[in-house]
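Chapter review: from sequence to fold.
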Amino acid sequence: MAEMMEMETAPEEKNNELALTTHEGNNNELALTTNETQPSKRRKKKSMVWEYFTIENVSPGCRRACCKRCKQSFAYSTGSKVAGTSHLKRHIAKGTCPALLRDQDSNQMTPYNQRMGGSEPPKRRYRSPSTPYIPFDQDRCRHEIAKMIIMHDYPLHMVEHPGFIAFVQNLQPRFDKVSFNTVQGDCVATYLREKQHLMKFFEGISGRFCLTLDMWTSNQTLGYAFITGHFIDSDWKLNRRVLNVIMEPYPDSDSALSHAVAACLSDWSLEGKLFSLIFNYPLSEAGLENLRPLLCIKNPLILKGQLLIGNCIARTLSSMANDVLGAGQEIIKKIRDSVKYVKTSESHDEKFVQVKNQLQVPSEKTLFLDDQTQWNTTYQMLTVASELKEVFNCLDTSDPDYKLAPSMEDWKLAETLCTFLKPLFDAASILASTTGPAAITFFHEAWKIHADLGRSITNEDPFISNLAKSMQEKIYKYWKDCSLVLAIAVVMDPRFKMKLVEFSFTKIFGEDAPTYIKIVDDGTHELFHEYVALPLPLTPTYAEEGNVGNNGKTEECQQGNLLSDHGLRDFDVYIMETTSNQMKSELDQYLEESLLPRVQEFDVLGWWKMNKMKYPTLSKMARDILSIPVSAAASDSVFDITCKKLDEYRSSLRPETVEALICAKDWLHYGSEPSIALVKMEF
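The token string follows.
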């Protein structure tokens, strides 16, 4: 339609045109007039192609468009049929004109495109609104290619693939193709630029940092330590960033972890700011001996180091789930084979659905095969299959070839396995989805699992009692190592404080509960006293935040600020010395206040942000405690049974490049200031 609108009527044909007019005084009289009595209005050609083409009459009723540069002619109109201008535009814009191709050696842009960059405003093409002229920028294109490779895990060698080169050349012929070494340098430059932004961001963090370490393996038996930092920013939001990916040639050695942690602390200048360290697997005694001195020398020993090193709850849950799957591996294989029989054949699936409808089984769930590296998929496969066990039991009546139906005893055992897996699945699902402080939630989950297993141990069924014993050993070890930090985190929640600790410990320890409750209470007070004794400014830093936005009153308050900051420091010391023994501490005041109502969407960090002026020291302690993670696994690895393995391609890259690609991908998700200044990297 757009091309038809651009069609122009030739002058020769206008002489025979008939015009229908209405004369004054006789509305019904029609008169035929020629072009001489009433000239027709010819529409002006608007397409740019007419700057490069002329119309020539070849024969009566046949016209062709002739290129002014190469003299080639193209069809334009034959009788009432019009060819339009699209093929003419392609001749000019795509560079198929031989004369234009010769000129292109001296000028990269074709004359058709060259008009876009001139002083004359561009003419509208294809009947679409004009778009602003964007100059070609080679560096910007390289920057965007590097970001694309980082964000989507594309191989660096893709820039040398013929398909990619052909695509880019058709998209922008002026773009100079880049090599593997060039794009590798661009990716590292992007990483260094984002790292500068992140280090600047860290300068404004007044709290401490918690680190998690997840050790990956590779086909070359090399280890890669993924170190992630967890912290609460100045707006009291919980943050996490992948800080380092450090290659360790001997990941099983006693010094591997201490080397990785030391490199991270030095790289990010976090000496003296580390609060806790979580590993994704149990450390050997020799590994702990190498690690503790390093951390104690460069960091204040908060609470005698009891909060410094912790275990990963995700690995504990996965290890317990693996015990369950191992105990029922025979029945799990039977059910998996039955599911495989149904899902790998369309005809079998149709018969299964037919039997299900005949039996009127109410379940709406669909069978699926599990991923044996993710234990949650096996649990979900078992639960769905158990709901449809009646269908499996009757499937042989409709499908004589099916001979894999588990027995009723098998289904009963599968339901027992699901009973053990459900609390683990619920807890791990929270871990995979939560974005707030997880320590508070997992205090409740851990003691609930501990209590349930304690009851299962007394079961008369030896299978249940033996499985519960092996699982309880693992949750007890985690509880023994991490219950203090989890409990203190609960105390920092104004909905629970010490009350939930007292209630939970009574359920777990019975008559011995007061002893363990006192350990938590003493530990909380001792930790608070250490924060009081830390060399912090007498005037809380939060007071400075409270003055932000009062610029309009600067002159009025200048004298008052001078007295507060410089003239009355001794008075502040006097107040602290004379009232410290008479007034209750911030912690005691906080604990004596009534509990807040338990609302599900309660923002505990937001509450401490609002009350930081009321509890200036206690809020600092709460900020650090609530930043402690309970898992070293990423959200997509919570259900992993095996250790994560770096793929073969990345394992072939230089360790510095691997770190740059993985860290930069994580940082780019949070955004940064736009910049295209490339740092030249040589490889």
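Two observations follow directly from the output. The longest strand covers residues 238-248. Residues 52 and 304 are 85 Å apart (CA to CA).
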